[in-house]
Amino acid sequence: MTTQTGYETTRATLVLPEGGTRCLLHVCCAPCSGEVIEALVEADIECEVYFYNPNIQPREEYEVRKAENKAFADRYQVPFIDDDYDVEDWFKRTEGHEADPERGERCTLCFDMRLERAAFYAYTHGFDVLATSLSISRSKDIDQINGCGMRAVSKYPNLSYWTHNWRKKGGSQRMVSISRREGFYRQEYCGCLYSLRDTNQSRRARGIDRIQLPD
Question: Model pTM?
Answer without folding.
Answer: 0.94
